[in-house]
Amino acid sequence: MAFHEKSAWLMAVSLLLAGGLYYWVVVTLSIEVNRPVPPLVPLVVAYTVLLTVLAVVGHIAIAVLAPRNSSSVLDERERLIARRASHAASYVMGVGTLVSLGIYLFYQSGDLLFHSVFASLMLSQISEYLVQIVYFRTSV
Amino acid sequence: MGRRPPITNRVRELRDQNGEMTQAQLGKAIGVTRQTIIAIEQNRYSPSLETAFLIARLFDVCLDDVFQWNDEGQT
Fold this sequence. Notes:
The complex is a heterodimer of chains A (about 140) and B (about 80).
Chain A: H1 3-33, H2 41-65, H3 76-107, H4 110-137
Chain B: E1 7-9, H1 11-17, H2 23-30, H3 34-41, H4 49-59, H5 63-66, E2 67-69
Antiparallel strand pairs in B: 1-2
Helix pairs in contact in B: 2-3
């Protein structure tokens, strides 16, 4: 498996893990107070730090386990895959933003707007790495 | 996503004819990863024109001797 495919797997799993934890806390707190909790700075910071640590430690581990491939730049096929995955992710972000705006129109809640846009961003990033993995494993 | 390109190739055969060159060696010689060579050989990826010419020049053959258009692959 190429370094960039391993990297895509790592980022997809890290984003799913960090995003899952983030929204587990948000949903749990929201159920407790019976309304959407406002964006919590410590929680956003914790999400960012966790994601950064997972990404950095994971990439170091990948590089140590396969040092020959670790410094390889993207070749033409990998660049094409990255471009197509980014294109697909932009649709996820666009749809997520539209849904978020719809939610705001109906509920007039800035807190809900923040959570839905943040979720759209996470889903967009996750979908980008998942699409990359699919292209790495099939035809492009 | 997943549609195979309508182009077949003889890269594997040419590697074998040229001292059993490995996929990694070929990839290094033309500036792509081993995984991209594997994808080309399995018809999962059609290389750019530049890479196609690099492969042909490396094996000292014409482009047509490496890559062939396959009409059946279009459907």
